[in-house]
Write a structure and sequence with these properties.
Blueprint (H helix, E strand, L loop, with lengths): L20 H11 L4 H15 L8 E6 L5 H14 L3 E7 L2 H13 L11 H16 L7 E5 L5 H11 L9 E5 L15 H7 L13 E5 L6 E6 L5 E4 L1 H18 L8 E6 L4 H10 L4 E4 L3 H8 L4 E5 L5 E5 L1 H9 L5 H16 L7 H15 L3 H5 L7 E7 L7 E3 L4 E4 L3 H9 L6 E6 L5 E7 L3 H18 L2
Parallel strand pairs: 1-2, 3-4, 3-5, 8-9, 8-10
Antiparallel strand pairs: 5-6, 6-7, 10-11, 12-16, 13-14, 15-16
Helix pairs in contact: 1-2, 5-12, 5-13, 8-12, 15-16
Length: about 475
């Protein structure tokens, strides 16, 4: 989960990602100031170096999630804002994506980029209106059970449902489970996106029947994974890779059907952790370009903005779709020449509003998936059959000093220690469909080894061989 009080966002027109690494460095320096006096000195120095006028008007908005520490952290933040004479608005309990939404609305208000009404209600109304348009008379099939990880996504999903058409009106039936926010200790306990992906099984409280669509959010509702139990009882995970390929396929088809296929470049952004089968599916079946970036949403989001329509999801379910300024203009101004083009164009326009383009948003992504499945007439099994994941394994290797492991090529290759990458390449070459890389942890003296191959046993063998190489190199 992210911090319970997401900080002020540094914006540049439409972009909400805190991408300026210098600011990240300065924020870290301030957070680790050894004393109050040092903090004040560093703060003044930062103002001078950044050439910020001390009397410049500052306006900060913030919110928190349901963790017990949230109220205390908010009180500290408020005291800091008062001390720096900043204006502020406390939006109380929100999901992280809702705060991002409001931030963009405020920063684009009165411009040609105006994003919506800057309020929680405005967020729900925008999603509800665009969902209705995107469905165009199509029907949802069955229900979806949503595990909210006992986090802030629970009450916010229930509030969103109030703005949607009811099942009796042809709307989506959403069954909410694990939405207890009154007991902080239940957050992510035996539930949530991480639990499902790590344990490869549904939360015990799910009780979903076979072939029923299920989804799990993370604690602050910026990540989502889907899954279902097959008719033979086997568990099937539909993670971020699956959501990305589903969205890219549908949006690519819509663009072509709307007569915009040659005018909109749709691309997919992944990290090295994306399953090799997903990458091959996008390249070979969807015939769309794929870009690989370093791990971290800020890297994926930045790369996605290079496309007219950029689809990015990490395997853990954090992601979204971003439309460029040019793409929005072309979609908005395009004139259809047939009823089929008109229908595709109307759906595409609705998706630009349904999707929270500011950041990964589990609630928005949930409805995006449901719209696509309804249009395709698919259940979870049909979605799962689009490609077959290669078996994969993630191994944690403790080392004396993680800093000696320096990665390049979007973290897929090691340039240091010398000779280690050649050993990894030699090991990979012995396995069919083999792929493996080693990446240093950002928080502890450990290296994470990812491996995949044609079979489960080969994958395990490859992972252990590369882990041994890393262990020997790391002392």
């Amino acid at each position: 989960m992210n911090d319970p009080t997401p900080g002020p966002q540094l914006l540049k027109k439409l972009n909400l990602c805190l991408r300026q690494e210098s600011w990240e460095t300065e924020a870290t320096t301030l957070a680790n100031a050894p004393s109050d006096e040092d903090l004040v000195e560093l703060y003044i120095k930062l103002i001078e170096e950044s050439q910020v006028h001390p009397d410049a008007k500052a306006n900060v908005i913030f919110a928190r999630d349901t963790r017990a520490s949230g109220a205390h952290l908010v009180s500290i933040l408020i005291e800091s804002l008062k001390a720096t004479k900043a204006e502020y608005t406390d939006y109380k309990l929100l999901t992280t994506p809702q705060l991002h939404y409001i931030t963009r609305c405020l920063n684009t208000k009165g411009t040609i980029y105006e994003y919506g009404k800057p309020s929680e209600k405005g967020y729900y109304e925008k999603i509800a209106s665009s969902l209705k348009t995107a469905m165009q008379g199509r029907q949802f099939s069955g229900s979806v059970t949503v595990d909210c990880a006992n986090g802030v996504g629970g009450p916010k999903l229930r509030e969103l449902i109030k703005h949607l058409a009811s099942p009796s009106e042809g709307g989506l039936e959403i069954k909410v489970v694990n939405d207890d926010v009154l007991k902080p200790e239940r957050l992510n306990h035996q539930c949530g996106a991480d639990f499902v992906k790590t344990n490869q099984r549904a939360p015990p409280s799910s009780h979903a029947s076979s072939l029923t669509r299920c989804a799990s959010l993370d604690g602050d509702a910026d990540r989502i994974v889907y899954y279902f139990n097959d008719s033979d009882g086997s568990f099937r995970l539909l993670d971020g890779d699956r959501i990305a390929t589903l969205a890219a396929s549908f949006i690519g088809d819509l663009a072509r059907n709307a007569g915009l296929g040659e005018k909109l470049k749709v691309g997919v952004v992944q990290t090295a952790y994306a399953n090799g089968a997903a990458t091959a599916y996008v390249n070979q079946d969807l015939r769309l370009p794929v870009v690989c970036t370093n791990t971290g949403v800020k890297h994926l989001h930045h790369a996605a903005t290079k496309f007219d329509v950029g689809v990015y999801f990490e395997a853990n379910g954090h992601g979204t779709v971003v439309f460029s300024e040019l793409a929005l203009k072309r979609i908005g101004k395009s004139e259809p020449y047939s009823p089929a083009q008109s229908s595709a164009l109307e759906t595409l326009r609705a998706l630009t509003a349904l999707i929270n383009q500011t950041v990964g948003d589990a609630l928005s992504d949930l409805l995006l998936v449901e719209v696509i499945l309804a249009h395709k007439g698919w259940g979870p099994k049909e979605w799962d059959l689009t490609y077959t994941d290669l078996p994969n394994r993630l191994v944690r290797v403790e080392v004396a000093d993680r800093s000696i492991f320096r990665a390049v090529d979007a973290e897929r290759k090691l340039e240091s220690p010398p000779g280690v990458q050649a050993q990894i390449d030699a090991a990979v070459g012995k396995f069919k469909d083999g792929r493996s890389f080693a990446r240093a942890s950002g928080t502890e003296d450990a290296v994470r080894v990812y491996a995949e191959a044609a079979t489960r046993s080969e994958t395990e063998d490859l992972a252990q061989k590369v882990a041994t190489i890393v262990r020997q190199a790391g002392g």
